[in-house]
Structures are given as C-alpha cells and as structure tokens.
Amino acid sequence: MNAQLEELEAKIEQVVDLVLQLRAENEVLRNQIEEAEVERLQMRQSMTAARERLESLIDKLPENV
Description:
By secondary structure, this protein is mainly alpha-helical. It has a domain at 27-56. The protein has one helix and no strands. The chain has one helix at 2-60. The termini are far apart.
C-alpha cells in the first residue's frame, strides 16, 4: 500500500511539474504574441506612411512624361 501511495505521489508531482512548465510556456507565448502584434501595428503604420508619401510624389509628377 505504501508503494502505491508513493507511486501515486510521484505521478502527481510529475503532473504538477508539467502544469507549471506549460503555464510558463504559455506566458512566453503570450508575450511573443503581444510583441508580434505591436510589431505588426508599427509595420502597418510605416506602410501607410510610405504609401502616403508615394501618392504625394505621384501627384507631383507631370502628366506628360
């Protein structure tokens, strides 16, 4: 009986360790997603600014070139 309880305790400890590991990995992944979202927004703003500059330059080109 003692051996079975010790085996069960060891398995429970493994499950607890795995849960803690997965929680830590989830936190890392959440942070990576958040950073990627910020980067995506910054790139979108840069692309919008570049498009506006290009449109402005195109508008300044002479018609008969």
